[in-house]
Amino acid sequence: MEPTPEQSPHHAYPDHWEADVVLRDGGTARVRPITTDDAERLVSFYEQVSDESKYYRFFAPYPRLSARDVHRFTHHDYVDRVGLAVTIGGEFIATVRFDRIDDRGRPASAPADEAEVAFLVQDAHQGRGVASALLEHIAAVARERGIRRFAAEVLPANNKMIKVFRDAGFTQQRSFEDGSVHLTLDLEPTAESLAVQRAREQRAEARSVQRLLAPGSVAVIGVGRAPGGVGRTVLRNLLGSGFTGRTYAVNTSFAEDLGTVEGVPAHRSVGGIGEQVDLAVVAVPADRVPEVVADCGEHGVQGVVVLSAGYAERGAQGRDRQRELVRQARSYGMRIIGPNAFGIINTSDAVRLNASLAPESPKAGRIGLFTQSGAIGIALLSGLHRRGAGLSAFISAGNRADVSGNDFLQYWYEDQDTDVALLYLESLGNPRKFTRLARRTAAVKPVVVVKGARHSGTNPPGHAVPVSRIPDATVSALMRQAGVIRVDTVTEMVDVGLLLAGQPLPDGPRVAILGNSESLGLLTYDACLAEGLRPRPPRDLTTEASPQDFRRALAEALADRTCDAVIVTAIPWVGENGEALTGEGEVLAAALREAASTGPGKPVAVVHVEMGGLAQALAAATSTAARPSTAARPGPQPAAPDPQAQTSAPATPGEDAAATNGAGPTDGTGPSAGRIPAYPAAERAVRALAEVVKYAQWRRHAAAPGKVPEFLDETIDEHGTAELIETLLGPDPDPRGRPLTHDEARELLARYGVSVRPALPAPDPEAAVAAAAKLGYPVALKTTAPHLRHRADLGGVRLDLVNENALRRAYDELTELLGTPAELRPVVQAMVRRGVDTVVRATIDAAAGAVLSFGLAGAPSELLGDTAHRLVPATDRDVAELIRSIKAAPVLFGWRGAAPADTAALEELLLRVSRLVDDHPEVVSVALEPVVVATQGLTVLGASVRLAPPPARSDLGPRRLPSY
């Protein structure tokens, strides 16, 4: 909306305050500033509010608004007087306003930092969480305008409004004055207010997904009059799945006297149905979708699955059409799956929904599957079906213009029918939120992700989301930090998903291998070593082994406390005539399942070569009961491992391990008694097991998360750093930011306890000699030109110069070989103790947030991409794992007999850098290179810092749906 002439040109309409929000019941609404054009809407809204609610708002009977009231409530300066409205279908359902006041409660302007706030919610929409969402948004607006406190007067009988304030999580004071409750809220966000906000977000978004997956009635719009076509296909699939709700066929071209299609009621419009429709599946041309959405919205449809193509995948015009589709649907309180979607499936026996183009519903299971690609969705459905796996839900979201993988993570987090979440993603619309939700979900159930479009640097057609510039390797590292199992292919996704859905989590990396083929056992052994597992020598049962021999061997391996998982290898039995015996696969499967059902809860996987019927027989569960959750069980849990022990070198084979990790059944009644996954190649089974082992370790660590040591607070000057940054940026900072000089960077870093070795400029030989005399010999002479910086391999560094002659000779060599002093920008530094050269960096990505990186210095590490990453803020556990996760980490721990480096000092440095960029978002880039880590202590020889106005933090603001 545009500001009217009556509004001050200095306070233009703040369109960035507009937001779509999900309410408690899963419906959506729009929050926006109130304008002078809203007079009629305000009057209509007020007329629909009960007398009781009006009394609570004005403390007296107030049947109607006067013209003066309407003018006052619709004219705002958006600074001292602000009003917000919540709308559905363009009409108001709630309002809130604040007026800035002074310490005596009179109208005021800045610098007064308190405001009086008042809400009014239409009675029909009370209990939907409208006021709570409004409070989040009006508080954010107030903070933006320099207001730090809200004051509110509430009648004691108005319990609902008192509860809204009380439950918000803000620091507050309450008193009783003149017959009303006086509340004062400090608007500074707190850990509690953020937790409340995110809990409400989770409940609302999960409920919005539940409404889509469990509708009581479905209308398929675009059902053809003759067999064939997308709409008719979806209708048949819906009926074929045995959907338990009501079904309707809709097409504007139906004859008025047409009663049924495929045995269900036929109608020309949703409005003509005359009954509540919860979900609409739209299969009409894109240019007709707006009228269909309007028909749905005006008649109370809760959600829409748009199969129609012709949107963002078709270019700029299609993107505009897609944005308008989302705006239109949300204006009616509806959520959208699609457009260009393949559909959704819910296998719950209470629903049995197949609103998709898949001709058959998968069988019921414990895996939830979300994909952004219809083609990949088909492949995954087919692969899971062949392997005997069942699904709890399937969603192919197409362009995912609205409902995304984040929404389904919110839903699966508490869904009792889903134990494993599989996601195929081609883009991440909100990486910060994804990693936050994934970390929380992964703490109770596994999340497996395949990321497509990893190396293109752009989003796939149809995905109108911001493009993140962080490398794919960084994305992978951040996912693993969040507990996500990141795999490269959909085949690996199925392999890992089957193991997670059917077996308990392992207690460690020790693997027992047994089977009737020595060669296959050795292949499995080698694959285990390659994946970082600790296999025991394979047990060869010989080709004469019977199924009962397998049963006994598996039972012994499961009972052995020195192994955490078992891989069984099997080849066909050969008869006397040289042909493979038939039917032995089923017999072997029964024997293996019998052993697994009676042994301790350890994961079992089978590698087979052409064993007819084995995979199918193993996939057949002995029970249809829900498997125990992989969440930690109630009751006493194992003590958290010592952080140092978690990051030390692996123990030698044969060491004992704890009997349980608290993350899976261990009593012999768990899922291992049912489906045992079978793999056609040893490498695939071992790779899946290795991913599950790493996830189980993450789960154990997540049960006792790390912390930031308290000693950092005593050696950090947060307030002084903020003042310095403000000075360095100046009153009118360049949005692109500015790099700091060497001295500025040293001063800034010193306030956070990071000491940078001084480097004195040497524009000529005499200046170099003077600098060396000041610093003391021996010294180093190095260039700082951008093309030579940190490139010792190009000859731009001379070390251990012990006297003036050596320094002058080195200066002459550099300038003769590489260029003039003006081009080289040489500097002199004092030599430091020898150690391991490392690099510490922190950067801000607008989409992903602050990322802390670590690696060894030098070209080899850069060429091999041997750099590790963690999200900021980093804990003591994060930094310990960070330095140990690079391939070259042994260099820091006494490789080839060298003295170990001081990794404790390195961890402290990483914590300080993490704290700096977390406390001060204006620090958008820090690079410490090289950091020389000696046996005792470390030295930072070079530092570069860049400051810029802080980027917006969408994850810390009030709840809102993304708008791309």
Task: Provide structural commentary.
- By secondary structure, this protein is of the alpha/beta class.
- It has 29 helices and 39 strands.
- The strands form six sheets. It has an eight-stranded mixed sheet, sandwiched between helices. A seven-stranded mixed sheet has the order 11-12-10-9-13-14-15, with helices on both faces. It has a seven-stranded mixed sheet with strand order 17-16-19-18-20-21-22, with helices on both faces.
- Helix 15 packs across helix 20 and helix 28 crosses helix 29.
- The N terminus is likely disordered.
Write a concise synopsis of the structure shown.
The chain has 964 residues and is an alpha/beta fold. The protein contains 29 helices and 39 strands. Helix 4 (130-144) links the parallel strand 5 (114-121) and strand 6 (149-154).
* Spatial separation of the terminal alpha carbons: 18 Å
- Helix-residue proportion: 25-40%
**Rounded average pLDDT:** 88
Number of strands: 39
Shape: flat
Keywords:
alpha/beta; 39 strands; eight-stranded mixed β-sheet; 964 residues
Task: List the topology elements.
Elements: E1 19-22, E2 28-33, H1 39-47, H2 51-58, H3 67-74, E3 81-88, E4 91-101, E5 114-121, H4 130-144, E6 149-154, H5 159-166, E7 171-177, E8 180-186, H6 191-213, E9 217-221, H7 230-240, E10 246-250, E11 260-261, E12 264-267, E13 279-282, H8 289-298, E14 303-306, H9 316-331, E15 335-337, E16 343-346, E17 353-356, E18 364-371, H10 374-386, E19 391-396, H11 405-414, E20 420-425, H12 431-442, E21 447-451, H13 472-481, E22 485-487, H14 490-502, E23 510-515, H15 518-530, E24 534-535, E25 539-540, H16 547-559, E26 565-570, H17 584-598, E27 604-608, H18 614-619, H19 643-646, E28 678-679, H20 682-702, H21 711-714, H22 718-729, E29 738-739, H23 742-750, E30 760-761, H24 765-775, E31 779-782, E32 797-801, H25 804-818, H26 821-824, E33 827-830, E34 836-845, E35 849-856, H27 859-864, E36 867-871, H28 876-884, H29 903-919, E37 923-933, E38 938-940, E39 943-947
Parallel strand pairs: 5-6, 9-10, 9-13, 10-12, 13-14, 14-15, 18-19, 18-20, 20-21, 21-22, 23-24, 23-25, 23-26, 26-27, 27-28
Antiparallel strand pairs: 1-2, 2-3, 3-4, 4-5, 6-8, 7-8, 11-12, 16-17, 16-19, 29-39, 30-33, 31-32, 31-33, 34-35, 34-37, 35-36, 37-38, 37-39
